[in-house]
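Retro notes
What went well: the complex prediction finally ran end to end.
Inputs used:
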Amino acid sequence: MSDLFAAVLTRLSRVPGVRGAMIVDISAGVPVVAEVSEGVPSDSIAALAASLYNRTARAAESVAFGHLDTLQLEADAGHVVIADAGETAVVAVADRSAQLGLVRLEVHRAAEALK
Amino acid sequence: MRRENLDAVVKALRAPTNRFVHEARVRTCLIVNGAGQALAQHGFTRAYEVVNIAALAAAAHAAAGALARLTDGDRWRHLHNAGKRQQMFLAPFRTPVEELILVAIFDEDSSLGLVQLFFDRLVSEIQALPEFQRAAAASSQASFEKDLEAGARRTTSTDGLAEA
């Protein structure tokens, strides 16, 4: 399993503009494995991404939108993409310059590989 | 063990404790010193609950410290107990004058990662408080129990309650 995690993260972190990729335990809010550039606080991102995902999933259910698959956050300095992978979630942190479509595609691929 | 400046300490801890509870979304939380004296709390309404949990937290801290030393560990960072509905996070931290212990109980509204994240911020805030820059007078054997009760009473009384 750890080989799979490593392969998934390596592929995702090679996407141009991706500064960090991690697999997060969605209920504990802690990183399972992470591959991040220097200065990217993986523990904080994992905690906040899991919290955001859980709350949004509950909101989606409460308005009968069904299961939450992907969550995308856009900010001045970049993007955070979170995709459901069962008990875990795949999280990518990307620069503003990153090709968002490609990042999303790779995050989805990673999540599917882990399900 | 604090007695003479207990009111000031309880008051000083109120704001950082409230911020932690709000940001980390914990249900209840308690800050005690190594002797088991409660200095701040949120979510408890009865003094005896505070006294019991404070004593157990201090005992758990002492036992875990002894275990760490036996296994050549320096010190332990936190204990986490994940129950079916609720989880408990227990972590010691140092201030310039004494070691304190945080006990936080949370449910599915929060997570271990979130509690850890805001715990670090809480520690930084408490370490900077002037009330934790100067050592408090040591407790005598005779006044030990009274000091414990004073902590529980001050943190659960209406004017000393560390809640919003």
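What we learned: Residues 2-114 of chain A form a domain with the Beta-Lactamase fold (CATH 3.30.450.30).
What to try next: split runs per interface for comparison.
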